[in-house]
Write a structure and sequence with these properties.
Distance between the termini: 64 Å
Order of helices and strands: HHHHHHEEEEEEEH
Helix content: 25-40%
Strand content: 5-15%
Radius of gyration: 29 Å
Number of helices: 7
Number of strands: 7
Largest sheet: 5 strands, antiparallel
Structural class: alpha+beta
Shape: extended
Length: 234
């Protein structure tokens, strides 16, 4: 009995080839995308070294591998791995913070505008509340807010339109500034303070692994169950 065979005809090479961009076009496109997504540095975060120091998890040890602001916001995960930024969760953490910074989501001090030598001064001021027309002035006509101003400039010389409340801080009691990494100045009754750049100010703490973490959880629990069964039979 003869079994019929089907002859396969090869397709023309023109149908198998997949069109692709030239290397020059791809490089220019990637460069344009990377450049357009680089946010400007801020007074509190003026360079890549400060950024890596603020986000913590010992990323400041890689500052020499990411020496410029442009490289900080353009290097891919693969490129960071080749530079020696390990382990993978550290690279993911860096990319996560990088994306937050692009969106203007900072940690404490990130919105401060008047910063000198990595130190910003903040103080409590009274600002009028917005009231409806015809409302009479009373004790609630003003509110106490914490603003970032130069230490040697009187508040009276600044326009209130330029004073913006500092995020992450609050006024406790009469005029005491409260918040993370706040250093109260002596002789001011807590109404004047400084915030200085410190290692790990913005660090997001890692959660504690349970049963070896997500990847090893099933294996660890299975071994534990088998061990309990073995002890029960003994």
């Amino acid at each position: 009995m003869k079994v019929g065979t089907t002859r396969l005809r090869s397709l023309p090479i023109s149908l198998l080839s997949i069109p692709s961009k030239s290397p020059d076009v791809t490089h220019k496109l990637q460069r344009h995308i990377s450049t357009s997504q680089i946010p400007p540095p801020t007074p509190f975060v003026p360079d890549s070294k400060t950024f890596l120091s603020l986000i913590g998890r010992n990323l400041s040890q890689h500052a020499a591998k990411v020496p410029t602001w442009e490289s900080l916001f353009s290097l891919t995960s693969v490129q960071l791995r080749k530079l020696g930024v390990e382990p993978a969760r550290t690279r993911r953490y860096l990319l996560w913070w990088r994306e937050r910074f692009r969106k203007g989501l900072y940690g404490i001090g990130g919105d401060l505008k008047d910063v000198k030598d990595s130190v910003a001064h903040v103080r409590v001021v009274e600002m009028p509340r917005q009231q409806s027309s015809g409302a009479s002035a009373g004790p609630d006509a003003v509110r106490k807010v914490i603003v970032n101003v130069p230490p040697d400039v009187p508040i009276s010389e600044l326009r209130q339109q330029e004073l913006k409340p500092v995020s992450g801080l609050q006024v406790l009691g009469a005029r005491t500034i409260a918040g993370p990494f706040v250093e109260l100045m002596k002789g001011t009754s807590g109404s004047v303070a400084t915030i200085r750049v410190q290692e790990g100010m913005w660090e997001q703490r890692r959660g504690q692994k349970v049963d070896g973490g997500e990847r090893r959880k099933v294996q660890v629990r299975r071994k534990r169950k088998l061990e309990e069964i073995r002890k029960g039979r003994a």
